[in-house]
Request: fold
Amino acid sequence: MSPRKRLVITGGPGAGKSSLVEALAAQGWCVFAEAGRATMLLQEAVDGPAHPSRDPAAYAEAMLLWDMRSFQESLAATTHCIFDRGIPDMIGYLRLIGRPVPPHMLRAAKRMRYDDPVVVAPPWRAIYRNDAERSQDFAEAEATHAAVTSAWRELGYRLVDLPLADIAERCKFIADIAGDAG
Reply:
Protein backbone atom coordinates (compact mmCIF):
# COMPACT_ATOMS: atom_id res chain seq x y z
CA MET A 1 0.00 0.00 0.00
CA SER A 2 1.19 3.50 -0.79
CA PRO A 3 1.50 6.04 2.03
CA ARG A 4 -1.74 6.58 3.89
CA LYS A 5 -4.01 9.22 2.34
CA ARG A 6 -6.73 11.46 3.79
CA LEU A 7 -9.08 11.97 0.84
CA VAL A 8 -12.37 13.86 0.71
CA ILE A 9 -15.45 13.35 -1.41
CA THR A 10 -17.45 16.53 -1.76
CA GLY A 11 -20.23 17.89 -3.94
CA GLY A 12 -23.92 18.54 -3.68
CA PRO A 13 -26.43 16.27 -1.97
CA GLY A 14 -27.65 13.13 -3.66
CA ALA A 15 -24.60 12.58 -5.88
CA GLY A 16 -23.65 9.18 -4.42
CA LYS A 17 -21.01 10.27 -1.89
CA SER A 18 -22.33 8.35 1.10
CA SER A 19 -22.91 5.16 -0.90
CA LEU A 20 -19.33 5.33 -2.15
CA VAL A 21 -17.98 5.92 1.35
CA GLU A 22 -19.91 2.87 2.59
CA ALA A 23 -18.43 0.75 -0.21
CA LEU A 24 -14.91 1.95 0.64
CA ALA A 25 -15.51 1.08 4.30
CA ALA A 26 -16.35 -2.47 3.20
CA GLN A 27 -12.95 -2.54 1.44
CA GLY A 28 -11.14 -1.62 4.66
CA TRP A 29 -10.83 2.14 4.33
CA CYS A 30 -11.07 4.26 7.46
CA VAL A 31 -14.21 6.33 6.88
CA PHE A 32 -15.61 9.51 8.36
CA ALA A 33 -19.33 10.15 7.98
CA GLU A 34 -20.81 13.38 6.73
CA ALA A 35 -21.10 15.95 9.52
CA GLY A 36 -24.31 17.52 8.21
CA ARG A 37 -26.55 14.47 8.26
CA ALA A 38 -25.09 13.18 11.53
CA THR A 39 -25.46 16.56 13.23
CA MET A 40 -29.02 16.93 12.00
CA LEU A 41 -30.01 13.49 13.30
CA LEU A 42 -28.35 14.04 16.68
CA GLN A 43 -30.00 17.45 17.09
CA GLU A 44 -33.39 16.04 16.13
CA ALA A 45 -32.99 13.30 18.75
CA VAL A 46 -32.72 15.91 21.52
CA ASP A 47 -34.72 18.71 19.89
CA GLY A 48 -31.49 20.68 19.88
CA PRO A 49 -30.86 24.12 18.41
CA ALA A 50 -27.97 23.22 16.06
CA HIS A 51 -30.27 22.29 13.19
CA PRO A 52 -30.46 24.00 9.78
CA SER A 53 -34.14 24.83 10.26
CA ARG A 54 -33.60 26.32 13.73
CA ASP A 55 -30.18 27.98 13.81
CA PRO A 56 -28.04 27.59 10.67
CA ALA A 57 -25.02 29.25 12.30
CA ALA A 58 -25.13 26.85 15.27
CA TYR A 59 -25.59 23.97 12.82
CA ALA A 60 -22.45 25.07 10.92
CA GLU A 61 -20.50 25.30 14.19
CA ALA A 62 -21.60 21.79 15.19
CA MET A 63 -20.56 20.47 11.76
CA LEU A 64 -17.20 22.23 12.08
CA LEU A 65 -16.53 20.54 15.42
CA TRP A 66 -17.57 17.18 13.99
CA ASP A 67 -15.19 17.57 11.03
CA MET A 68 -12.33 18.88 13.17
CA ARG A 69 -12.70 15.84 15.43
CA SER A 70 -12.80 13.54 12.40
CA PHE A 71 -9.66 15.14 11.01
CA GLN A 72 -7.83 14.69 14.34
CA GLU A 73 -8.91 11.06 14.53
CA SER A 74 -7.63 10.45 11.00
CA LEU A 75 -4.10 11.34 12.09
CA ALA A 76 -3.88 8.05 13.99
CA ALA A 77 -5.29 5.92 11.14
CA THR A 78 -3.16 3.16 9.71
CA THR A 79 -5.16 2.83 6.49
CA HIS A 80 -6.35 5.30 3.88
CA CYS A 81 -9.13 7.58 5.14
CA ILE A 82 -12.09 8.84 3.18
CA PHE A 83 -14.19 11.75 4.40
CA ASP A 84 -17.77 12.30 3.30
CA ARG A 85 -17.26 16.07 2.98
CA GLY A 86 -14.77 18.12 4.97
CA ILE A 87 -14.19 21.40 6.78
CA PRO A 88 -14.34 23.61 3.64
CA ASP A 89 -17.86 22.34 2.98
CA MET A 90 -19.07 24.45 5.94
CA ILE A 91 -17.66 27.54 4.25
CA GLY A 92 -19.58 26.71 1.09
CA TYR A 93 -22.72 26.01 3.12
CA LEU A 94 -22.60 29.35 4.93
CA ARG A 95 -22.02 31.24 1.70
CA LEU A 96 -24.86 29.36 0.04
CA ILE A 97 -27.31 30.48 2.72
CA GLY A 98 -25.97 34.04 2.75
CA ARG A 99 -24.29 33.87 6.15
CA PRO A 100 -20.84 35.24 7.04
CA VAL A 101 -17.99 32.78 7.44
CA PRO A 102 -16.41 33.19 10.88
CA PRO A 103 -12.62 33.74 10.87
CA HIS A 104 -12.03 30.67 13.04
CA MET A 105 -13.73 28.49 10.43
CA LEU A 106 -11.37 29.78 7.74
CA ARG A 107 -8.41 29.16 10.09
CA ALA A 108 -9.58 25.58 10.67
CA ALA A 109 -9.89 25.00 6.92
CA LYS A 110 -6.39 26.36 6.33
CA ARG A 111 -4.72 24.48 9.20
CA MET A 112 -6.39 21.09 8.83
CA ARG A 113 -5.47 20.14 5.28
CA TYR A 114 -6.64 17.02 3.51
CA ASP A 115 -4.65 15.33 0.74
CA ASP A 116 -5.03 16.39 -2.88
CA PRO A 117 -6.91 15.86 -4.99
CA VAL A 118 -10.35 16.39 -3.51
CA VAL A 119 -12.84 14.17 -5.28
CA VAL A 120 -16.03 15.87 -6.42
CA ALA A 121 -19.23 13.92 -6.94
CA PRO A 122 -20.96 16.00 -9.63
CA PRO A 123 -24.73 16.46 -9.66
CA TRP A 124 -26.29 13.36 -11.18
CA ARG A 125 -30.00 13.65 -11.83
CA ALA A 126 -30.40 9.91 -12.56
CA ILE A 127 -29.53 8.92 -8.96
CA TYR A 128 -30.79 12.00 -7.10
CA ARG A 129 -33.40 11.13 -4.47
CA ASN A 130 -34.93 12.93 -1.51
CA ASP A 131 -35.09 11.21 1.86
CA ALA A 132 -35.96 12.07 5.46
CA GLU A 133 -32.96 14.42 5.80
CA ARG A 134 -32.56 15.56 2.18
CA SER A 135 -35.35 17.92 1.24
CA GLN A 136 -33.51 20.02 -1.38
CA ASP A 137 -34.64 19.86 -4.98
CA PHE A 138 -32.15 19.14 -7.75
CA ALA A 139 -31.57 22.86 -8.45
CA GLU A 140 -30.58 23.35 -4.79
CA ALA A 141 -28.28 20.33 -5.06
CA GLU A 142 -26.56 21.97 -8.05
CA ALA A 143 -26.24 25.27 -6.14
CA THR A 144 -24.73 23.42 -3.17
CA HIS A 145 -22.29 21.70 -5.50
CA ALA A 146 -21.17 25.07 -6.90
CA ALA A 147 -20.83 26.63 -3.44
CA VAL A 148 -18.78 23.85 -1.87
CA THR A 149 -16.49 23.30 -4.84
CA SER A 150 -15.82 27.04 -4.94
CA ALA A 151 -14.77 26.97 -1.27
CA TRP A 152 -12.39 24.06 -1.84
CA ARG A 153 -10.81 25.78 -4.87
CA GLU A 154 -10.37 29.04 -2.96
CA LEU A 155 -8.44 27.10 -0.32
CA GLY A 156 -6.01 25.87 -2.97
CA TYR A 157 -7.20 22.31 -3.43
CA ARG A 158 -7.07 20.52 -6.76
CA LEU A 159 -10.45 19.02 -7.60
CA VAL A 160 -11.19 15.97 -9.74
CA ASP A 161 -14.65 14.84 -10.81
CA LEU A 162 -15.84 11.41 -9.84
CA PRO A 163 -17.08 9.54 -12.90
CA LEU A 164 -20.81 9.05 -13.33
CA ALA A 165 -20.47 5.30 -12.97
CA ASP A 166 -21.43 2.38 -10.75
CA ILE A 167 -20.01 1.99 -7.24
CA ALA A 168 -17.34 -0.53 -8.29
CA GLU A 169 -15.92 1.83 -10.91
CA ARG A 170 -16.06 4.73 -8.48
CA CYS A 171 -14.19 2.66 -5.85
CA LYS A 172 -11.51 1.84 -8.40
CA PHE A 173 -11.24 5.54 -9.28
CA ILE A 174 -10.62 6.37 -5.60
CA ALA A 175 -8.10 3.52 -5.23
CA ASP A 176 -6.24 4.82 -8.28
CA ILE A 177 -6.04 8.28 -6.67
CA ALA A 178 -4.74 6.75 -3.46
CA GLY A 179 -2.10 4.88 -5.42
CA ASP A 180 -3.51 1.44 -4.73
CA ALA A 181 -4.64 0.45 -8.21
CA GLY A 182 -4.92 -3.09 -9.29
Q: What stands out?
A: The chain has a mean pLDDT of 91.
